[in-house]
Amino acid sequence: MLSEFQDTLLESVKAFQSTQLVMNKYENVLQHMDSGIMLFDSEGVLTFINVQMAKLLETPRHALIGCNLLQILLHPHLNQFKKRKILRIYRETIFYRKKNHEVIDEYGRHWLITVKYGDQMDGDFLLSVKDVSEFRQIEQTAYQNDKLAMLGKISAAIAHEIRNPLTTIRGFIQLLRPHLVQLGKDEYARIILAEIDRANDIIFEFLNSSKPTAPQMVVVSVYSLLKEVVLLTESEGHMKGCEINLLLSEDANMNVSIDVKQIKQVLLNIIKNALDAIEEVKCDHSGVINITAKPEGKYVNISIQDNGNGIDKTLLAHLFDPFFTTKEKGTGLGLSVSYRIVRNHKGTISVDSIKGAGTIFEIWLPMV
């Protein structure tokens, strides 16, 4: 009888050890997932948090285990930004029954948050967080390309329909101009001609943004390219009280195969925007635009940084959209054209900005 009891006890111990090994294995898997995971029990107490989630919250795991939601919101290790996001997710989950949330953190990354609860969770709440920034970037790029393709169709359709009558109107105004001069109304003719020319310029920008000409590639030195761009813009910079610095030595051995005219158009457009942003700043400090270049793998990274007015973070995602502009008299086509030109060169372009502190544009071009 005793022997049977010992055998049963031994089997129970082995079964327990086996179960414990499996649980440890599963816990180890959860700990090292690339998604952040938190588990709250039915009383709202945090019973499990993995390594990734602790990193996202920038708080040690042991400091959070055993805390309820109120204690987490009052936790000294968590910053105010994260506390507000947690509270928002709690409200939307409890009051609006939302189980999927998407938030953008203070670093501009996109996170997909999923909350699971109900009978299948035995009263527990499982919260998982996954970084979807790369997917959003791919989605944004595809969306951008779709819009540019649509812009091409629109531009091709309207160009001939509008330009032809504008040319006719311009011709008749010029014929009537002597009569207007006799009536003392020459100013009217001048204004009409100027407005017609402006309309033609906008149509020309439409055509350029819809279908830039195929790049005529030549190999050029990055230094000589940037030096020429600085020479073209420094006089306007001086007029606006802005210093344009090329922080690159002449012996920097970096060459790119580009259409010089097109890439110069991109660089001049960005610098012009930087000058406008600096002009908007109503303060005593002088404007500065720093232009640098450095090799990054198979690419050359060209950056243009200013200390101008900056751009709100919420607007950055739309900056390369056709017709989107932050300027009162802008057409919203300059940066969309720049985006298309850089993409046609097998490169990439990005922007980052802090409102009130300045903006940095970065362009990556394949290096020869």
From TrEMBL:
Its EC number is 2.7.13.3. PROSITE patterns: HIS_KIN (PS50109), PAS (PS50112). SMART domains: HATPase_c (SM00387), HisKA (SM00388), PAS (SM00091). Transmembrane segments: none annotated. It comes from the Bacteria. It catalyses: ATP + protein L-histidine = ADP + protein N-phospho-L-histidine. InterPro entries: HATPase_C_sf, HATPase_dom, His_kinase_dom, HisK_dim/P_dom, HisK_dim/P_sf, PAS, PAS-like_dom_sf, Sig_transdc_His_kin-like_C. One of its GO terms (molecular function) is phosphorelay sensor kinase activity. Residues 157-368 form the Histidine kinase domain. Keywords: ATP-binding, Kinase, Nucleotide-binding, Phosphoprotein, Transferase, Two-component regulatory system. Residues 22-76 form the PAS domain. PANTHER family: C4-DICARBOXYLATE TRANSPORT SENSOR PROTEIN DCTB (PTHR43065:SF46), SENSOR HISTIDINE KINASE (PTHR43065). This is histidine kinase. It comes from Paenibacillus lutimineralis. The lineage of its organism: Bacteria, Bacillati, Bacillota, Bacilli, Bacillales.
